[in-house]
Each structure stands twice: as structure tokens, then as C-alpha cells.
Amino acid sequence: MRILCFEANLIMKLGSILLIVCVLFALLSHTYGSPTPVKDADDVDFCPKSLTTSGTCSDSSRTCWDELNAAYGASGMVHQCSCKGLADNKRICTCLVRSCQK
């Protein structure tokens, strides 16, 4: 009789422990689980875009980033710009831009 009571108590304790572990797992996975996937900059296609403007590459009043950002806007996510000087006070600005369709 004592053995049956001991086994019943043991099974109830194990069941309670298992239930607590499952509840904690559910709460923690819900709280700290992976969030809804969001498309980040690594998932976006960037294309090189060039723009010929007046001025020199050393002209600090308007950088290549400023020129292409004005042309494509903030949604273009302009980055990694380079400048190549041309004759007649001109320059070619090339940057990676998100808007591949433009």
C-alpha cells in the first residue's frame, strides 16, 4: 500500500514538474522567440546609380551623397558613394541606391 501511495505521489510530482516546464517554455518562447521577420537592408537590392553634376570632388558644400539623396530621396537609402572628377568643373557621382527601377 505504501508503495502505491509513493508511486502515485511521484507521478503527481513529475506531472506537476512537467506542466510547469511546459508553461515556462511556452511563456519564454512567446516572449523571447523569433519576431516576425522584417526585411532589412541585407534583403534589399541596391544598384549603382551615377549622376553628373557641376563642381569638384573636393567641394564640401554638396557631397555626392547629398546629390543622389536629393535625386532619389530617403527611400533610396543612398550609400557607398564615390566621386570622379571630369573636365570643365564637372564630376560624376556614383552611389548604391535602393531604387533599381529609376
TrEMBL record:
It is found in: Secreted. Pfam families: SCRL. The keyword Signal applies. InterPro entries: SCRL. One of its GO terms (cellular component) is extracellular region. One of its GO terms (biological process) is signal transduction. The keyword Secreted applies. Its main location: secreted. Residues 1-33 form the signal peptide. Keywords: Secreted, Signal. Belongs to the DEFL family. This is Uncharacterized protein. It comes from Pisum sativum.
